[in-house]
From TrEMBL:
InterPro entries documented for this protein: GPR143
Organism: Rhinopomastus cyanomelas (Common scimitarbill)
Subcellular compartments: Apical cell membrane; Lysosome membrane; Melanosome membrane
The keyword Cell membrane appears for this protein: yes
Gene: Gpr143
Highest taxon in the source lineage: Eukaryota
Region of interest: Disordered: 371-392
Assembly with partners or alone: Interacts with heterotrimeric G(i) proteins. Interacts with ARRB1 and ARRB2. Interacts with MLANA.
Gene Ontology molecular functions: dopamine binding; L-DOPA binding; L-DOPA receptor activity; L-tyrosine binding
Pfam family, one: Ocular_alb
Record-given protein name: G-protein coupled receptor 143
GO cellular component: apical plasma membrane; lysosomal membrane; melanosome membrane
PANTHER family named among the record's database cross-references: G-PROTEIN COUPLED RECEPTOR 143
Swiss-Prot/TrEMBL keywords: Cell membrane, G-protein coupled receptor, Glycoprotein, Lysosome, Membrane, Receptor, Transducer, Transmembrane, Transmembrane helix
Keyword Lipid metabolism: no
Amino acid sequence: MASPRLETYCCPNRDAATQLVMNFQPEVFCGVCIGSASVSLLLTILQLLPKKGQSPRKRPKASSSSTILLLISICDILGGLGLIFRSSVWLGFPGFIANISAVNSTDVWPSVFCVGSAMWIQLLYSAGFWWLFCYAVDSYLVVRRSAGLSTIVLYHMMTWGLAVMLCVEGIALLYYPSLSSCENGLEHAVPHYITTYAPLLLVLVVNPILFRRTVSAVASLLKGRQGIYTENERRLGTEIQIRFFKIMLVFVICWSANIINESLLFYLEMQPDINKMPLKNIRSAALITWIIMGVLNPMQGFLFTLAFYGWTGWRVDLKWRKREIPWQSMSSSTAGENTYPSPVNYQNNIHDSKKISTTDSQQTDDAISMLSEGNTSSDDRITRSSPIYQGW
């Protein structure tokens, strides 16, 4: 799971709230993290692999949205690998982990492992948050016809730049001036928590607004494509809206426990003694949400693939397919070079005029196809209702 408590636990003088959750059944908690992350990792890879009996989907052009969806899954996979590695070391080498709490220990490797693994997990999940924000921005820009593959470079710069900057800044402020003096006051901890939860809260607040505006823009595009709003257009708009809803639902399910847990732990930190009886229910709620985080945070990768593509099936096709050589097109072009000039081809002129008249409709179909990436039924409806398809 991704929590700033992982970094604060690396401090020898950690606060009582962090001590409470990190020392609560650590073997059980690490086992839960390993199990959840392993299941999510395997199912996510299974979802992304090509399947038998499925023909490659034809797209009008490569889309930045499909690239962003793949990068979100990669961030979840790498973050899950970090969780598995950290929890495995925690379970397999308890003596090594015990040196983290030693104030006067001369062995620096336990602290290096603690800080390094926590930063890896935070960085990858934080990058996934930024990519999800970029997906919402890109969806809106695609409908407005202001985005394309060229914008993916800007998304890379923004995502990785902000993720690395916030992670390094939060860690530097937490461990300043040294690892032994961190967590000596809120001035060390608060900036670290802000940099950790800023991208998460950004997705929770801004993405629904962008998705809502995108759905409204899609409805306007569908109405203006042929001048009528048929049942196909209505269903396609509904599917795009449902897809955005699934994405936000998965995000809320996987990360709402983090916000609740952090609020409870901050409340406990403000108390002079967190072991008092009146705080028993709050302590219990904090421990329960802590275990829930270990289950739900790693499952985000698999649940996102379900929201993006639906269930793709078990039958994996790992056969290497040769790329077909377009002999026919080559021979036809060669034959065209060796023939005499032909008279004016009126049929080609008719086709050219159709291409010009349907350029705007093609752009609309491309934009909607990007938003419905991975939904074959939606793609079929786009093709059937497209004037280009009807004209050819």
